[in-house]
Design brief:
Protein name: Bax inhibitor 1
Subcellular location: Membrane
Strand content: under 5%
GO molecular function: calcium channel activity
Family: Belongs to the BI1 family.
Structural class: mainly alpha
Shape: globular
Number of domains: 1
Transmembrane segments: 32-49, 55-73, 85-107, 113-135, 142-161, 167-188, 208-227
């Protein structure tokens, strides 16, 4: 009974926190998630295009970076919305094509792993982004400094491992530690989007790019982990 009472209390408190978000910001958040969903669909098309035409590689990686840079440096005025939307979809397509080799290898190995990874990614992303939406404003903003420091530390360790060995161990650290980092960024970015929207920044395309990158980051790491676990289990 105590468990159910505490659960009801938390749910009620969470709903009150959600109601603190203004209606324009709620509409903005819905628009952001819809845009992320469209970018993921286009990214899946990019994966399929690579599997048909073998277009993914270094060129599409630079294509993603270039399109993202162009999006962020294009005016967010209403007149430029169409152009910025095209930049976002082009970036998503290039990102999908860049992942085509890895996704294709996983499909040949065991297609069920791909489905499991996508479902798990959706669950993780929705859970932590939803938690950030239901939390108090700015409650998780402190994560920004921690995540930046952790990212910098991982980059330093990666460089050191390339000189002093331990690449295999560093790969495991980057895989699992990187997953925790990206989950943290989902929480932080969601609250940052809300805070910016409350201050009048309704740039749903830029905000969608942030969450799209977070989603792909989770998906890639979950996919690697599932393949690794499946391989170890198979050989055992």
């Amino acid at each position: 009974m105590d468990f159910f009472e505490r659960s009801s209390s938390w749910n009620y408190g969470a709903m009150k926190n959600f109601h603190r978000i203004s209606e324009p910001v709620k509409r903005h958040v819905r628009q952001v998630y819809w845009t992320v969903a469209m970018a993921l669909i286009v990214s899946a098309v990019g994966v399929y295009a690579h599997m048909l035409l073998n277009i993914g590689g270094l060129l599409t990686t630079f294509g993603f970076l270039g399109c993202s840079f162009a999006l962020m440096n294009t005016s967010s005025s209403y007149a430029a919305q169409g152009k910025r939307w095209n930049w976002l979809m082009a970036a998503a397509f290039c990102e999908g094509a860049s992942l085509g080799n890895f996704v294709g290898a996983v499909i040949e190995f065991d297609p069920s792993i791909l489905v499991t990874a996508f479902v798990a990614t959706v669950a993780v992303f929705a859970s932590f982004s939803g938690a950030a939406l239901l939390a108090k404003r700015r409650e998780f903003m402190f994560l920004g400094g921690i995540l930046a420091s952790a990212t910098s530390s991982m980059l330093t360790l990666h460089v050191l491992s390339s000189f002093f060995g331990g690449a295999a161990l560093m790969f495991e650290v980057e895989l699992y530690g990187g997953l925790l980092l990206v989950v943290g960024y989902v929480i932080f970015d969601t609250q940052l989007i809300i805070e910016r929207a409350e201050r009048g920044d309704m740039d749903h395309i830029k905000h969608a790019l942030d969450l799209f990158v977070d989603f792909v980051g989770i998906f890639v790491r979950v996919l690697y982990i599932l393949v690794s676990v499946h391989t170890r289990f198979h050989w055992t």
